Amino acid sequence: MNATAQRQLQHESPRAEQPSELHPDLNRAHVRFINLGKTYDSQHGPVDALQNIDLAIQRGEVFGIIGRSGAGKSSLIRTINRLERPSSGRVLIDQVDISEFDEDHLVQLRRRIGMIFQHFNLMSAKTVWQNVELP
Description:
Blueprint: H1 24-27, E1 31-42, E2 45-57, H2 73-80, E3 88-93, E4 96-97, H3 103-111, H4 128-133
Antiparallel strand pairs: 1-2, 1-3, 3-4
């Protein structure tokens, strides 16, 4: 997954003396990826799963991550609760960089984040609502 297909918020108009400031919505984003990268080691050398991801998702916004198999969707999503540690860049949740969270802080964070994995093993004897209630 690369930065070319990502949504970007416009920068405010720059002042002559100062560099341009970020759009205010970026500073209030619920989930924010800043120059995020993830590289895996393989038998054939390093594989870049994520490169230069810059993305801001606002609270209450419904957002989908789509792409072909192997595009890095799961790697990106797993950085939100640090099931994957990024190789570069930052992940901010409510403006807090989670990169240095210890295990206790990660447990607290993960309790606040609901995730449905690709192979989620629904219980056939339960309704959709009952399956969603389980976690």
